[in-house]
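Entry 14. Structure prediction run on the chain below.
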Amino acid sequence: MRLWPRSLAVRLTLLLVATLALAQLGLTLLLSRERDSVVEDLMHSQALSQSVTLARLLDQAPPADADLLLQAFRSRRSCVAIEASASAGPMSPAEQQLAQAQDAAATACMPTTTIPDAAMPTTNRR
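Output returned:
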């Protein structure tokens, strides 16, 4: 029993099928990575959007409603985690660069809002 056929037509057909299978596998891997990248970008965009929405709501809502708003944004469906305060340590150069880029993007397309510390619930402060 021979594994490699004698006929040139059958050899070419097998070679073509093997090449197409490898190309399909490579394309599947490439598209999977691209899809993962798009999903990650969408998640980051959603987290930023939710953060901006929360900041605007906290800025416009009465302080008594701050706890209710924060509970709504802490749902399981939320992409962001709400923290009472940022870390106390100094920012690394990469964090400083990211903060400057976010600052520039935020000021370019929307008015700046700040979240007063008094709007944060006292039960979550550290």
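Residues 84 and 126 are 7 Å apart (CA to CA).
Filed with the rest of this week's runs.
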